[in-house]
Amino acid sequence: MGRSTTLPQTASRAVAALLTPAGDDHPWTGWTFSAGWGSRESLHVTLVTPELVVEVGVDVARDNAGRWRHPASWHRPRPDLSPADVPDFAGLAG
Question: What is the tens place of the pLDDT at every residue in 15-32?
Answer without folding.
Answer: 899 999 999 899 889 888
